[in-house]
Design brief:
Layout lengths: L6 H11 L7 H7 L4 H10 L4 H19 L4 H7 L5 H12 L3 H12 L2
Helix pairs in contact: 1-4, 2-3, 5-6
């Protein structure tokens, strides 16, 4: 019998392809054919959480977008699924240890070399 892939991998794959403006834990659980409480419980059993996986996807997508565009922070926040730009700016600082503006300046400086 073929072993099923870990739930965290399936959730990551789903989130990587999903529209982050419209997806949430409930929609993700539904896609995995389970309730949101079962999703949370099974992810916890794998040593992770929905929020950790969502943040990983947001960081990945955000870095890809920043490497090729200069979208305004508000637009970037919406694309990453944040309803409030300030929440995005705080999360970005948590992910990278610097502000979005400083990060962009460093990208430009490193790209100019």
């Amino acid at each position: 019998m073929r072993k099923r892939k870990p739930l965290r991998r399936r959730v990551l794959r789903f989130l990587l392809l999903a529209d982050l403006e419209r997806v949430d834990a409930e929609a993700t659980a539904s896609r995995m054919c389970m309730s949101s409480s079962t999703l949370r419980r099974r992810l916890r059993a794998e040593g992770t959480s929905y929020q950790v996986l969502l943040d990983a996807v947001r960081v990945h997508r955000c870095d890809k977008v920043l490497a090729r565009t200069s979208l305004p922070g508000k637009t970037l926040a919406l694309e990453m699924g944040f309803s409030e730009p300030n929440s995005f700016y705080r999360a970005f600082h948590r992910w990278h240890g610097k502000s979005l503006t400083r990060y962009r300046c460093e990208l430009q400086r490193n790209g100019a070399r």
